[in-house]
Amino acid sequence: xxxxxxxxxxxxxxxxxxxxxxxxxxxxxxxxxxxxxxxxxxxxxxxxxxxxxxxxxxxxxxxxxxxxxxxxxxxxxxxxxxxxxxxxxxxxxxxxxxxxxxxxxxxxxxxxxxxxxxxxxxxxxxxxxxxxxxxxxxxxxxxxxxxxxxxxxxxxxxxxxxxxxxxxxxxxxxxxxxxxxxxxxxxxxxxxxxxxxxxxxxxxxxxxxxxxxxxxxxxxxxxxxxxxxxxxxxxxxxxxxxxxxxxxxxxxxxxxxxxxxxxxxxxxxxxxxxxxxxxxxxxxxxxxxxxxxxxxxxxxxxxxxxxxxxxxxxxxxxxxxxxxxxxxxxxxxxxxxxxxxxxxxxxxxxxxxxxxxxxxxxxxxxxxxxxxxxxxxxxxxxxxxxxxxxxxxxxxxxxxxxxxxxxxxxxxxxxxxxxxxxxxxxxxxxxxxxxxxxxxxxxxxxxxxxxxxxxxxxxxxxxxxxxxxxxxxxxxxxxxxxxxxxxxxxxxxxxxxxxxxxxxxxxxxxxxxxxxxxxxxxxxxxxxxxxxxxxxxxxxxxxxxxxxxxxxxxxxxxxxxxxxxxxxxxxxxxxxxxxxxxxxxxxxxxxxxxxxxxxxxxxxxxxxxxxxxxxxxxxxxxxxxxxxxxxxxxxxxxxxxxxxxxxxxxxxxxxxxxxxxxxxxxxxxxxxxxxxxxxxxxxxxxxxxxxxxxxxxxxxxxxxxxxxxxxxxxxxxxxxxxxxxxxxxxxxxxxxxxxxxxxxxxxxxxxxxxxxxxxxxxxxxxxxxxxxxxxxxxxxxxxxxxxxxxxxxxxxxxxxxxxxxxxxxxxxxxxxxxxxxxxxxxxxxxxxxxxxxxxxxxxxxxxxxxxxxxxxxxxxxxxxxxxxxxxxxxxxxxxxxxxxxxxxxxxxxxxxxxxxxxxxxxxxxxxxxxxxxxxxxxxxxxxxxxxxxxxxxxxxxxxxxxxxxxxxxxxxxxxxxxxxxxxxxxxxxxxxxxxxxxxxxxxxx
Length: 989
Description:
Number of strands: 26
Structural class: alpha/beta
Radius of gyration: 33 Å
Distance between the termini: 51 Å
Oligomer: single chain
Shape: globular
């Protein structure tokens, strides 16, 4: 039985798990753990690093740093947090963390030496003793907006991991935690400049993502060494396996890339399967017992990055190999170009590409310690036994093709003294004879199938790849026409009956010949066009037609262009000078093909259909590709490769799809010569997708048991009220999300209407629109739905009526009057809570009262969601808070100077330990704001984060409070920080 943290205890449970693996933890008792470190190391509230703790540690781990020069070093380090671009700052700070920061120190001769100061001691023998690992809850940073992540992990006082947690007592899940983390990054980017990654979790799920990562790159960590394995509690296992100090420091030092991308740079951190596979390789090289190993990872799992992580670690870790030469070998020029581009865009220094056979020969003879990228074909004429480095590690991509054309033997002769690791998603085991191709025999030591495996099943369960469903279309009815057949067959058909012709064709005509018969192509094109128009195009997905010959590809291309337009369809195959006219019609050169492929990957660009022969079935990643129309007889690893073209995840994409015109999937056991698990998960019958939809619909409808399924206001009110609280709210949010994706994949299908599924789905869509208007305040939530769902709503749901029943309210006196018109107290509470939270979020840094009111709203909502407060009680409590918000706004005034004065006055009278007379507080506030307007330059962009501005503000606060009003006893960091934030936030609002 799976065990989960009790309600409201996610944070405490997580801290306990961290405590068990070596973190110094504060906050397990439910108190605010950050307060302990704040007090001990005298942190100013706007700082994100515990500078005094870091000072202690850099003196401890760096011989050249002492009390005399540590502060100067830290002042220079402070400037490294001042970046407008988060990823740029994060990349720069990661370099300082992993390699040290340069610093000038005085030498014995009175001159200066440049040294590198380590912020973290990475020595594997004593890093636990020489570094400080703190895990605290509720670390608060006010800077513009105040953020307070649930748990933060610090190494030597530097925040490396930020965690946002949701529990079953809330209506939110890890999706909402990710959203919060992204908002934190926007509100206080300074906090994330040093960060390694973020964690988003709820009571049941754990996800981690690098700093700046979008939603889809928050992933699972589903593997663990024996000491952290816990089948009963996968969340505990993930936390301890990923966040134990040893793994965390290892990832920080050895598993981070920064990649240049057209849409903006990205930080790359390892998936668990990459991390553990690389460490298996390192262990094997270090131990030196075996010189081979097979990495069997399903397509789409990131094998390229696994190889690059392995190469980086082999080249940089002397304890693994002293001075190695590392080869990454691919088997096509296309894959070589892709890997070369990947390397060019990464922060990986020691690499070169073998430009020719002669260049490869030189590189082998020189034996320089670097990464060498080459194709296997370049080994064809390399001289044997010229290896210049006795520490050579070879990694072969697409290892299932490695043995072809005897090139493997050429490689072995050229690099006889090497360790060789094969990477594949589709290993080959063709037979038992010695000459038969067998990836396992080639790469695995005796008694071992693979060094590390990541299966199709694991990939689907992790959401890394999607399930693929197939539907058979090979038994099409079409008329046999002698005119459509090749000339050489015509005499065989004279005098035959239709049945005799069919029998002759089945015995004597190849699948390629069949694919080139005009009546069959016409019928297949008709099927493809209808299927694409009804099932694929509405949500913006794209398709690929796979053909057995260039002629059949050209025939498909002609006919599909007639139906879908010239720009919508492109045909890709190799060309020769003596091609017949039909094939010449679609000739493209390599540059044109590259351009077509790149356009295909873009959602809003043509083509929407690609017709291919012998192209793009390996190494082609296009998440927008949903459906493959397969008219080629593929088997085994070739079939797995083709299936994988459609299984890449994208927002709203529930599955990939194969429409089979050859009958390949009629007997999947014969088509795929793999283990039972691979066969079961590689592709499934499309009927299973319909069954999944039926099951999911039942699950979501069960949430509304007892509520009439009509379009009345009463039914809608009751339904929205039910899903306003835990646990139904969470169940509906997640359930409808999956249901919508399933519906979009299945529709149109006559059974949806015949079996009443569409009517039920229509009703749920109405509830979803009302729910979104109530909880998110969106004016038109139906616009965010998928295309087929939106069409149902437009045609069958009165959206105007829903808008009248569930208007989007804004905060103000009129809101309190309007909300009284709602009959259902649960809906009322949801409306007020959302409007108040939405209104307060940007204001929490402008006035201490806003922060307190925001915390009250959160507390009320959590108690209401958890069932501790009834609907009417929640409404009254929330209305009371909202009235206070309106009152504070009216008292604060509209102008920046009025708001700032009011905030400072409130802080002096309400936040200090001693009683402070309001009149005196108002005078001090007036003086501070007047001085601020006179002395602080705000005429340029970015003034609010400028260091000089910060100093000017602090000086004027000291001048007013300590000198003008003779109250130096009031001065401390929290007060100065608070007043500065009120000034900045109100004048920058």
